[in-house]
Amino acid sequence: MAETPLLSVRNLKVEFPTRRATLTAIDGISFDLKKGEVLGVVGESGAGKSITGSAIIGLLEPPGRISGGEILLGGERIDNLSQTAMRKVRGKRIGMIFQDPLTSLNPLFTIGEQITETIMTHLPVSEAEARKRAVSLLEEVGIPAAAERLDAYPHQFSGGMRQRVVIALALCAEPELVIADEPTTALDVSVQAQIIGLLKRICKDHGASVMLITHDMGVIAETCDRVAVMYSGRIAEIGPVRDVVKNPHHPYTVGLMGAIPTLVGELDRLTQIPGSMPRLDAIPKGCPFNPRCAHVFDRCRAERPDPIDVGTSRVACWLVEEGRNDRASKVEQA
Amino acid sequence: MLAFSIRRLFQALLVMIVVALIAFTLFRFVGDPVNQMVGVETTPEQREALRERLGLNDAVIVQFARFILNAAQFDFGTSYQFKQPVAEMIGKRLPATLELSVVSAIFAVLVGIPMGVYTGLNRDSFLSKVFLSASLVGISLPTFFIGILLIFIFSVNLQWLPSFGRGEVVQIGWWSTGLLTWSGIKALVLPAITLGLFQMTLIMRLVRSEMLEVIRTDYIKFARARGLPNRTVNYRHALKNTLVPVITITGLQLGTIIAFAIITETVFQWPGMGLLFLQSVQNVDIPIMAAYLMLIAFLFVLINFVVDLLYFYVDPRLRTERAIK
């Protein structure tokens, strides 16, 4: 443990105070992200993936707020920075890519204007220099005739091309970390793979770490070094992609892997996890997954499991902790 | 863009011809113009001679064509009451009304937009609530009351500003302006505020609700995620996206301001067209009313045309012809 991780999230809690009650969207999650690493974050809608991303970049929508824990970037805390100081982190040290490229770009400004203004906000360069950088960035993300397209407006690009522009924008000040929040969900299936490939390659070239938020296990398996599985604002399991995919420990992860459609084998029905994720105002006591878990026992309903090391992974599950896991995997295979 | 302009120009022409028809019908149906012009002791022969001279015995369509031809040359006949050419009378009073209207529109925009942006961004601040409550007053109080209130405070009590008239004016060609003298500017303040207050509150509320909408969009979130300074995000990225509806409303309101400056002009004894129009209504002075109708219609058409062109300037998505494939 000689190297300080690039990003370190320690026991992070995010709350949304509402008139009725305070909802806890993120309940004590911890993870590290090493330099150059690609971390995938998966989970169902509402598991808290995007909120985690917004909390890290300091753009939680009010009334949401960080109510506990800390976020360290390169060893320094960034969760308690002032608005102005945090603004200089955004774009410069952490780049962000949003889900829908069709709405991420301001329709009234040319893409050249949007890229150069971002470059000039963060780097001490002249406008001509910024334009030059913009052109080379656009070429890098694979936009043909980049110099001419600089003066085009977003509506003159296709969805895939716009997401390329968004990637160029997120990377234009050479950030150390890129948070990509479902970068391909809104795109055609045919361009999804291209964009993911591009994102991975370009971040590697620029030496940026990536936090890839998605609900597509396929994308995670192909792209990421490590993966965190989130459920109800907590991390159920986190570890190297190979281990989590091949040898999942948490029943929820087991269920997720079972829900990936395959072309091999004679399975004619997809496996499902019964039930749905609890609402934020009705998270059950103990392990939040317990109402849907096939292997639930008394302790799951009473106490909340904390993540423990299992091999290369960390898993929050009483089954694993009490060594009952064999039964679980056996049942799953049967 | 050119095709669009030409199309709009044709539409504008059509609108003007329809308005001309209405103005023309005024002459035909609101009493006999000859009755308005001659005394009681005029003989039927004299009346008939006058009819012939005025062309009132020609076919209706010929009369209408003549009316349009004359109107196109700014000839609206002679006022019944003042026995002066109508065009000349309006020309004398037009500058006063236009100056008042434009200044009050500028006041409404320059004050309304920043207030709208502020209240949109700081929804819960104390000042926002003050602005919003004050705007409610601005919207609900009738113009004449605001005018009288302002006169009472600033002219009667404080004696800072004059309560009526235009002050000294300077003649530039046929245009008389009050903007070049100190007393002219002072005289303009109260009526301009009175006339513009309603539009100001309207613009403020419009900008506010548009801002609330726009700051929730993805591109604003993305702009913040790129680390752009707040000022850039709010005033460059967000405000520009609120402008299309604001331009529409401001344009329409400018037309309304000009057309309905009447009340403000009456309260402040402003020597503009509104006052002239009121007098012409009292005296059934149809040529003036017809000319006024045509002029206002023309201004509306002109403003709408400019507004349409501004859309193109603001929103690149409308410039489809220039799309790169």
> What string, H for helix and E for strand, traces the elements of chain A in order?
EEEHEEHEHHHHHEHEHEEHHHEEHH
Helix content of chain B: over 70%
Q: Structural class of the secondary structure composition of chain B?
A: mainly alpha
Number of strands of chain B: 2
* Coarse morphology of chain B: globular
- What overall form of chain A do the CA principal axes indicate? globular
- Please state the average pLDDT score of chain A: 85
Distance between the termini of chain B: 18 Å
Q: Give the mean pLDDT of chain B.
A: 83
Account of the protein in words:
The complex is a heterodimer of chains A (334) and B (325). Chain A has helices at 49-57, 83-89, 101-104, 111-122, 127-140, 146-149, 159-171, 189-205, 217-223, 241-246, 251-258, 298-302, 318-321, 325-333; strands at residues 7-17, 22-33, 38-42, 65-73, 76-77, 94-97, 177-181, 209-213, 226-231, 234-240, 308-310, 313-315. Chain A is an alpha/beta fold and 334 residues long. Chain A folds into 2 domains: 35-59 and 82-229, Rossmann fold (3-Layer(aba) Sandwich), CATH 3.40.50; 241-333, no CATH class. An 8-stranded mixed beta sheet of chain A has the order 6-7-8-3-9-10-12-11, sandwiched between helices. A 4-stranded antiparallel beta sheet of chain A has the order 2-1-4-5, with helices on one face. In chain A, helix 4 (111-122) packs across helix 5, helix 5 crosses helix 7 (159-171) and helix 7 runs parallel beside helix 8 (189-205). In chain A, 45% of the residues are buried. With 325 residues, chain B is mainly alpha-helical. Helix content of chain B is 74%, strand content 2%. Chain B is built from 13 helices and 2 strands. Chain B has helices spanning 2-29, 33-37, 44-54, 60-72, 86-121, 126-140, 143-157, 182-214, 218-225, 230-259, 262-267, 273-282, 286-314; strands spanning 170-172, 175-177. A two-stranded antiparallel sheet of chain B has the order 1-2. In chain B, strand 1 (170-172) and strand 2 (175-177) form a beta hairpin. Classes of the chains: A alpha/beta (334), B mainly alpha (325). The A-B interface holds A 57, 59, 87-92, 95-96, 98-100, 103-110, 117-118, 121-122, 148-149, 152-153, 155-156, 166, 169-170, 173 and B 217-230, 232, 237, 240-241, 314-317, 323-324.
